[in-house]
Amino acid sequence: MKTKIPPPIVATLFALIMWGLDALVPAGQLALPGAPTICLLLIGLGLAIMTLALRRFRKVGTTVNPLDPSLASSLVSSGIFGRSRNPMYLGMLVLLTAWAIWLGNAANIVTLYLFYSFMTRLQIKPEEEALTRLFGEEYEAYCKRVSRWI
User: Fold this and answer.
1) Which of 30, 66, 88, 113 is deepest in the core (most CB within 10 A)?
2) Residues of the chain whose pLDDT is less than 70?
3) pLDDT score at 3
C-alpha cells in the first residue's frame, strides 16, 4: 500500500490545527513555568532525532521517501533505529509537543494524540506491511526488539 501524504505535510497540518484550536478554545489556556526553555529543549531534541534518522538512512544508502516504502533497499535497524522503529515520526511528535507547550492550550493534548494515531494507522502500519514483504523474518525480529515509537 502506498501512502498519499508526505509526513512533514501531515505534521504541518496538525500544527495548523493546533494553532486553530488555540484560537477557538481560549478556555483551555494554561501557563507552564519555564515553557520557553522546555520548548527550545524539545525542538532541539526533535530535530536531533530526525537528523540522526536521516543520516542513518543516507549512510546505509536506502530511500528516505516514506510514500513508497517498497523502494527500501536495506533494513535500517542500527543507530537511532535501535531505539525507535520510526524516529522521524517521533521527532515530528516531539516538535508538535513543543508547539503545544508554546501555545499553552490543553486542548492540543488531544491533537498530539490524534497525530500519533493518524501516523500509526495511515503511515506506519502500511510501511510495516511493505517492510514485512521486503525483509520478512529479519523485519519481524526487528519489530520484536524495537518498539514502534519509543
Assistant:
1) 88
2) 1-3
3) 66
* Helices 7-24, 108-119: crossing angle, 10 deg rounding: 160
Q: Return the closest-CA partner of residue 83 out of 17, 15, 149, 1.
A: 149
Residue 76 has a CB neighbour count (10 Å cut-off) of 21
* Residue that the C-alpha cell 532525532 belongs to: 49
**DSSP labels, the chain:** ----S-HHHHHHHHHHHHHHHHHH-GGGB---TTHHHHHHHHHHHHHHHHHHHHHHHHHHT----TT-GGG--S---SGGGGT-S-HHHHHHHHHHHHHHHHHTBTTHHHHHHHHHHHHIIIIIHHHHHHHHHHHHHHHHHHHHHS-S--
Q: How far apart are the first and last CA of the chain?
A: 24
88 half-sphere exposure, CB direction, 13 A CA radius:
18
Can you read off the three cell numbers belonging to residue 63?
530511500
Pair 150, 37: CB distance under 8 Å:
no
pLDDT value of position 69 = 83
